[in-house]
Amino acid sequence: MTGPAVVGLDIGGTKTVAVLVDRDGTVQDRRRASTPARSGPRAVLDTAARLAADLLPAAGGGPVGVGTAGTVDPTTGVIRYATDSLPGWTGTPVADALAERLGRRVRVGNDVHAAALGECWSGAGRGDGHLLLVAVGTGLGGAMVRAGRLDAGARGAAGAVGHLPVPGAEGLRCGCGRYGHLEAIASGTGLAAAYAARTGERCTGRQVAERAASGDPAARAVLDRAGEALGAALAGLVALLDPATVLLAGGAAESLRPAATAAYAAELPPAWADVPLRLAALGEDAVAVGAARLALAEQP
């Protein structure tokens, strides 16, 4: 793929990242800033536009891509729903607001969807075409790429694997407000809640993973339970969706991978025994790189 570079943006609850990506998916330059989430959508958009504008002189005249937290209307680029990680984000016309600030067309997608596109383009799923990505962070999200194109569903919300009912989650409250979902176990929030229930001590999901690595038996038990639930659920999703590869992304992915891999292998039906479960490769660049790929899809 030839032509000028393209700019991709990752707008998250804690950080905003802009990258300049060449047509092979390689990051040439990047900018990063804290997201002023508590200052409201206008401040968030101003920050994103400032970072992107720094990179635009080195890019072509095509659209800018954005991956952001929340459910995104794929036609209008308006946020249909977002959590309190970005207060007031629901209803924000991200595509139009950034287009006005940057003087470019803007294509907007969900952040996990963008990460899946990025990994399929130039990361751990490169060359696979059919990819299931599950991102384990504060919450739990997913995305499916088919034949190199994102399958976002009818409402732009496909891939919400965190809301699958799973054994062992009965009585545990999910971030959506309901009970018994995978996110209540296999997410940073779920890890923190389970550790507090076992020990009476409150800490973050990342700290639970660090304590497990240091030999804390309660933390290890929490991670094992979460990994087992996640791996079994992924095996069922493989049978349903038939991807070529499954990738784990997000801050808790590496710590959950051992138990998840064992449960995945045990539950995977024989017809899909060759579908690997791997870690994603692009790290913190994944969303912004995928957003750049989303923008390229709009160009001839």
From TrEMBL:
InterPro entries recorded for this chain?
A: ATPase_NBD (IPR043129), ROK (IPR000600), ROK_cs (IPR049874)
Q: Which domain of life is it from?
A: Bacteria
Query: What Pfam families does the record tag this protein with?
Result: ROK (PF00480)
List the SUPFAM superfamilies: Actin-like ATPase domain
Family assignment from sequence similarity: Belongs to the ROK (NagC/XylR) family.
Name listed for the protein in its UniProt record: ROK family protein
Source organism of the structure = Micromonospora musae
Q: What is the lineage of its organism?
A: Bacteria, Bacillati, Actinomycetota, Actinomycetes, Micromonosporales
